[in-house]
Amino acid sequence: MDGNGRWASKRNLPRIFGHNKGAEVLRETVITCKELGIKYLTAFAFSSENWQRPQPEVNDLMRLFVDVLDRELPGMIKDRVRLNLIGNREIIPPDILAVFANAEEKTKENNDIVLNIAFSYGARDELYQAARKFCSDSINGKIYPGKGGIEDINIFSGYLFTSGIPDPDLLIRTSGEYRISNFLLWQIAYTELYFTRVLWPDFNRKCFYRAIFDYQRRERRFGKL
Description:
Layout: H1 4-10, H2 15-36, E1 40-47, H3 55-78, E2 81-86, H4 94-107, E3 113-121, H5 123-139, H6 150-157, E4 170-173, E5 192-195, H7 205-216
Parallel strand pairs: 1-3, 2-3, 4-5
Helix pairs in contact: 1-2, 2-3, 3-4
């Protein structure tokens, strides 16, 4: 969900206005996904590298996350949206983590759509943590990996933050950037990529439909003929 700050700067507004508008767009995107029968949506909200941003902006973003979750929770419960946090929970401030945990708990029985919020997330960190736990469990005899292949790949996938979540079919990157930016590097091995110059706060339903239509025209072979 890239381009919030640039969207605000173009309008001579503080960057937080762009992030707030971006949260509204995410809500509309969740509604659209539910209408289309899309069962999983993963939104990259805050990366592990974002902690290095100026402290005032980080503080503003933390307050925004709390406000948005408090505001949207009743709607998520009503619309049967299940919230799932993926990311390094150990470095999330306890008060922020508690808000996420509360939302996860109160929506855990919902099954119309799963909204994965990638928060304090970095794919390299995810792979490192997974590899450490995988090796430890292998040494301790908790798992018995073979010589590689699909079985071992499936076992390793269970150690990722996204354990139990299907790999994404489509990745949408907004704002004209043509890179993955440390997002779901393992999971997107066969994901279709869609790049658009539209800034995230302007990514309306029409833009989303355009990405879906583009995806539907593609042929996915997964290495086969």
